[in-house]
Amino acid sequence: MGWVGPGLVDGAVTGKVFASPSASQARSVAKAADHGGGIILAFLNYAGDVLHFGMAAELLKADGYEVRSAVVTDDVASASKEEVKKRRGIAGGLAVLKVAAAAAEAGLGLDEVFRVLNKTNDRTRTFGVAFSGCTLPGSQKPLFEVPAGKIAVGLGVHGEPGIFETDLGTADDVAKLLVDKLLDEVPAGAGKKVIALLNGLGSAKYEELYVTYESVATRLLAAGIEIVDSEVGEFMTSLDMGGLSLTLVWVDEEIENYWLTPCDSPAFRRAKLMDPPLDPSVVFNTEPEPFKVNKKGSELSQKAAGQIAAGLTQVRDILAKNESMLGDLDAVAGDGDHGAGMTRGSNAAAEIAHELVKDGAGAQTTLVGAGARWAEQAGGASGALWGAALTAAGNALGDENEVDLKAQVKAVDAFVNSIMVLGGATVGDKTMIDAQVPFAKEFERCVSEGHSAADSWKLAAGVSVNAANATTKLVAKMGRARVLGDKSLGSADPGAISFSLIVSAIGNML
Ligand code: ADP
Ligand code: MG
Fold first, then answer.
1. Phi, psi (5° rounding) for residue 239?
2. Which part of the chain has CATH 3.30.1180.20?
3. 133 lines ligand 1 (CB under 6 A)
């Protein structure tokens, strides 16, 4: 398990995969690890281990050692409450051994350490679920399979399948299953304080474990339980098994103190707590900064802001419709998130724009707010660029002036320029710039020739559609797609396509 080291155990006897080590191996490790104060052989309660370690204890006694044998029996699924002694040991073994090892390190004698170990075991309960079985090295198929849409409940850590199957639910459902079962198993004399260990069995991802843990913690707190410490990670895996288990240790002061002392082993470390500890009242604000209208826009600018908000609604709708197409385009040489990012960004931008307009914002305040929200929510290169560009366009318009066609030309220029300045791309690099620069040029031409706003937007949008499609022939020289530049040949740049869709939608609205 990787639990040998200062503050943890002195030796580990390793058998073959999923098989008990032999008595003679246990004996030789025990001798090598001996410090002279007696030996505790602790093992999980599997038949092979019980036999081999039992024999090893006899051999060591014959060699003249003081020996105690202890079993870990935390797995509530493996036998009923009436037959606790028959239960298997699983991930709760970490807690049992860590606490006992700390007691030994604190200088307690053999029988005292043995008492602490058994007490901790009596107060430790684990329950687990599997989403998929594990495969022995060299084997062609998994030891067991969990049918699609099901979870196996009460697995062992040596490839033993679950005791029964139930429907696969959300992380919340899994957390409920685990917590409810364990709260039905509260050991005699236990208080309200626990250590919680959420253990991944091999191929559960840390993201999944943490998402589940949040729900576990919420449920425990709601049940009036105080979590004195928690660990989320992989402590006892079963090769590549998909699944997780929850261990609760109902602590008393002694167990809590020994659990919290520092230890250092390859697989589990606990540092000395910082002094002074981190201030838990300091939390990150995960809510976006609120936007307020500090100064109302002029009447004309408010009117323009209303149109901008309506335009952003159109933008949001066209992006939502094309989300998967844009994602597929981005997946050719990028990471496939362009559709999702643009959808998130435009959604947030449209929402804040309408709020600001309601409060009397002018064009600048509306666009600056929309840009900030877009960048915040979209993420990615395009999110940063769109955020900056909307902000620049807003700053070009101000909150006072009428947004006539001349002002629109200025705003479009500011939009495109800010992207070139921030992103450093030029025409031909296969980015959104390739659709934007021709758009800006055509828009300016149309306005100077006296076309209406609607015509100017429509004509310029048409040019940007052609320009975006023409990026098919280019090799990406900027952005994420640059790395796989040649791969991008033959498909259009997602950022250029999304831009042409957006300006087309605005053109159609006018
Ligand atoms: P990410 O590349 O971070 O995953 P997106 O997938 O949302 O972000 O956006 C990719 C698009 O961003 C590209 O198709 C390209 O149009 C645009 N882009 C990337 N880098 C730049 C840049 N430096 N200048 C202009 N546009 C860029
Ligand atoms: Mg991307």
1. 50, -125
2. 23-264
3. no
- Topology at the third CATH level for domain 23-264: Hypothetical Protein Tm841; Chain: A;domain 3 (3.30.1180)
Chain region(s) in the chain for CATH 1.25.40.340: 299-509
Residue 143 is given by DSSP the state S
Average pLDDT over residues 163-189: 94
Whether the pLDDT of residue 485 is over 90: the answer is no
Q: Compute the mean pLDDT over every residue in the chain, rounded to the nearest whole number.
A: 94
Query: Which residues, at least 6 apart from 484, have a Cβ–Cβ distance to it below 8 Å?
Result: 333, 334, 476
- The predicted-structure confidence for 442-480, as pLDDT tens digits, reads as follows 999 999 999 999 999 999 999 999 999 999 999 988 887
* Ligand 1 center from residue 434 Cα (angstroms): 12
Residue 437 near ligand 1, beta carbon < 6 Å: no
What pLDDT, in 10s, does the model give residues 250-308? 999 999 999 999 999 999 999 876 667 677 787 777 777 778 899 999 999 999 999 99
CA 229/CA 256 separation, integer angstroms: 9
How far is the CA of 138 from the CAs of 135, 159, 355, 482, in angstroms? Answer: 8, 15, 61, 40
Q: Which of 376, 420, 432 to mutate to test the pocket of ligand 1 (most atoms within 8 A of CB)?
A: 432
Can you tell me which atom of ligand 1 is nearest the CA of 424? Answer: 23
Q: Check pocket membership of 496 for ligand 1, CB cut-off 6 A.
A: yes
Mean pLDDT along residues 212-239: 96
For the domain made up of 299-509, the CATH class stated in words is: mainly alpha
